[in-house]
Specification:
By secondary structure, the protein is of the alpha+beta class. The protein is 30% helix and 19% strand. It has helices at 4-11, 53-65, 89-97, and strands spanning 29-35, 38-43, 72-77.
């Protein structure tokens, strides 16, 4: 069944192009709404000058369109301030293993 949890699990497969951490675990996803077959994702970036915005956006749309029941994906860029505090414990572990944190 298509719901917020299903969408978030799918988004855990969308990795930041610079680090093998999902957009969920990096704290880039600021909200998910599901209405019938329409999914709306609120997305921020680590910086306004992030060179990967288009790649991330396309990966999100492509991954969510692969979910059963999804007819439309809307990605809204919100540019809410991001900080390292937004990274999940899972994301921190991956970054630590890479020697980034």
């Amino acid at each position: 069944m298509l719901n917020q949890e299903t969408v978030l699990e799918a988004l855990r497969e969308v990795l930041d192009p610079e680090y093998p951490v999902s957009v969920v675990d990096l704290g880039l996803i600021r909200g998910v709404e599901v209405e019938g077959g329409r999914v709306r994702v609120r997305l921020t970036f680590t910086s306004l000058g992030c060179p990967c915005t288009e790649i991330i956006r396309e990966d999100i749309v492509n991954r969510l369109k692969a979910l059963e029941g999804v007819d439309e994906v809307v990605v809204e860029e919100v540019f809410e301030p991001w900080s390292a505090k937004d990274i999940s414990p899972r994301g921190r572990l991956v970054l630590l293993q890479l020697g980034v944190v």
